[in-house]
Amino acid sequence: MKPLMHGTLPLTARLEPWMEAVLADPAGCRELIETFGSPVNLHDFSALGRNAGELRAAAAEHSVDFQVYLACKANKTIGAIDAAVNADGGVDVASFHELNQALRRGVDPDQVIVTAAVKSRALLALALDNGVVVSLDNRDEAEDLLEVAAVRGVRARVALRLASANPLLPPTRFGLRADRWLGFLRGVHVPDRLEVAGIHFHLNGYSAEHRALVLAESLRLVDALAGLGHAPGFIDMGGGIPMSYLDDSGQWTAFWEALAGQPAGSEDVTWKADSLGSVGTNPGTGVYPYHQEPVRGPWLDAVLGSRPAGTPETIAELLVARNLQLRCEPGRSLLDGCGMTLAAVAFVKERSDGVPLLGLHMNRTQCRSTSADFLLDPILLHAAEPRRAREPFSGFLVGAYCIEEELILRRRFVFPRGAAPNDLIAFPNTAGYLMHIVESASHQLPLAVNLVRDGGGWVPDRIEDRVLRA
Ligand SMILES: *Cc1c(COP(=O)(O)O)cnc(C)c1O
Hints:
Elements: E1 6-7, H1 17-23, H2 26-36, E2 40-43, H3 46-61, E3 66-71, H4 78-86, E4 90-93, H5 96-104, E5 112-114, H6 121-129, E6 133-136, H7 139-152, E7 156-161, H8 178-187, E8 194-200, H9 208-226, E9 234-236, H10 249-260, H11 296-305, H12 315-321, E10 325-328, E11 339-350, E12 356-360, E13 379-381, E14 393-398, E15 413-415, E16 424-428, E17 449-454, E18 457-460, H13 463-469
Parallel strand pairs: 2-17, 3-4, 3-10, 4-5, 5-6, 6-7, 7-8, 8-9, 9-10, 12-14
Antiparallel strand pairs: 1-15, 2-11, 11-12, 11-16, 13-16, 14-15, 17-18
Helix pairs in contact: 3-11, 5-6, 6-7, 9-11
The structure holds pyridoxal-5'-phosphate.
């Protein structure tokens, strides 16, 4: 069947079977919206174990000891924590509340790492009290940690966050260079107060080559640390493990070509001819690469099989020779296939110049990451008796914030058979970042309810308990 809605340049989402089943039942979707409000976030974590399994299989091929930590900032539900644990994984937490939730949910403290960019004393204390490894970002943070540990009379377990000194990589605000860490560890007498359990880094972008370069750099740091009496047991390569939302690479290239060719003033492809940060036909770094290859398993295989300049051994062999565990912290690519957002149509109207607009009961922070746009076609469900006859049109999705630029998505969409109030729009594959990373309760509009699959039905995620009790 032809979709009831698609981009003027279509970008067709890959769907999980559970998503297809939800979409095949518009009445059931209406009921969810009526009960829980619009938008509502649906989670079915059945794909998470498969995603983790792809990574594990690639590591096993290279005989590398390996563990996966879900980056909790990508999705705030307790269901996501449970799913990570059920897949024998751990969690990467970025705040006091994330750590507290994970511990209260029963995650083994050994399967948690704190990577928060800025760490409160309360967060450090909670980590220390539970023996959770803290990724150390800088010397001041190290002093804070040692002070809090001294009060408690415990030894801190840390991973040194490594900022690469490799000129092939862009500069980073995170961590310190290896020479700085070594200087710090030489300067203070710490072995009895500080255990260097591992090395940690997290890179921008999705380059396998960059990961291999910084893994090689981490291995050199491990060797230097041995000279200072430390015996790190792992290297954690952070997140940024790539995934693909689109199966059709042709759609992806056609979209960027059309965008590059969009005449100034035309809105055939995007609102107000927005270039979405692109340069010519190259997707800008301002958006996620919704189609890319390789992803997950084959990508990790490329990292592990690469040979750093000057060594005959692969990264995998160098890890194995030192008895080091490789860890990673995927957010997005672990949550691939785990979520979908449903929203109700509020109105159909025209902009003052006649451009058609479809208004939704949601705001743009409820399906948005930190990048310029979410580049997947939503799915329209004719779910209600139309008030007026539905007419075909092509236009834009607008939302609830009182701002001219309140676009839910910035691309133009075609509605070959029209749309009407109370019809529904589903945003596919939103569990990684799209639901939560920038959601706001501006205008005192409530945050979306999060539902998790429970057997055949949907129940509010336990994170809602806190909200309901408040
Ligand atoms: C955000 C983040 C991640 C997850 O990144 P993805 O791109 O979602 O895989 C992992 N580790 C750290 C330290 C992060 O900041």
